[in-house]
């Protein structure tokens, strides 16, 4: 990061100042990783209390998160109300993430990430669609008890204003830098103090969208099809997909898509046109992958009386003609 030495000094100064000014903060509760995933998506640009209200409203609709994943995003958005910032987009992001987790794990749970190394859990979360850098870091800090410094829009704005990070730093770069400057034992305290300070200073600017936005990761065609199928009430069958096959399902990172190039490079991703790297170019007319699955969707079967006759009649006639000409 440009000016890293000066920024590192400012981090220490600001941390000490916040401790002196705000005292001992109320430490945020640690919960299961999926709860933190939902809170992360819905608190990118709103105070924590508002995000928790949204969480409780959605919980009131279902028995568990498995039921939540199959509710159409539009229906969830209508439940929360249009007054919630980017409500439909956030509901779609959450739905994509929960359904991909289910496709891989056959349950809506991320508890197994606690048994992974830090490197493995980071790589796993980077491959879950719908999750930007803030939500991924929040899952690690408050859901997996790993060291991370999540930055929502208000926190990122204050960190830049107070010169703790370079003004042009990307979100994931800023989080990684602060993670290196703050001791692991102080991570939760720093997060709590900075969040309290940031929202007291930047709430109006965030509401008016005068700060750098945390962009949603746009869906690929596969996940768009998945959301459409869920909205139509279609039951989706899924296969067991290993974690290392996430990329083959068409979720490549790309500049401007919410997954920064540095993260993609760290994973060793190959730059491509957005097609699955291990499958080559799909021929025109080939069936698309079934949403949330590693299989290709079957082509619609035509009626026996119509299409079948066409195959045995007109099509057969053409085949016979070709044979005679040969």
Structure description:
With about 325 residues, the chain is an all-alpha fold. It has one domain (about 1-295): Endonuclease III, domain 1 (Orthogonal Bundle). Helix content is about 50%, strand content about 0%. Helix 1 (about 5-20) crosses helix 11 (about 185-205), helix 2 (about 35-40) runs antiparallel to helix 8 (about 135-145) and helix 9 packs across helix 11 (about 185-205). The longest helix is centred in the middle third of the chain and has 21 residues, at about 185-205. The model is unreliable at about 235-325 (pLDDT under 50).
Summarize the structure.
It contains 14 helices and no strands. It is mainly alpha-helical and about 325 residues long.
Q: Characterize the overall form.
A: globular
CATH architecture: Orthogonal Bundle
What is the alpha-carbon Rg in Å?
Answer: 24 Å
- Give unreliable regions as ranges: 237-326
Describe the biggest sheet?
none
What fraction strand? under 5%
Order of helices and strands: HHHHHHHHHHHHHH
Q: What is the domain total for the residues?
A: 1
CATH topology: the name is: Endonuclease III, domain 1
Query: What is the mean pLDDT?
Result: 79
User: What top-tier CATH class fits best?
Assistant: Mainly Alpha
Specify the helix fraction band. Answer: 40-55%
CA(first)-CA(last) distance: 69 Å
Relevant CATH superfamily = Hypothetical protein, domain 2
> What is the tally of beta strands?
0
Q: Please state the structural category.
A: mainly alpha
Count of separate DSSP helical elements: 14
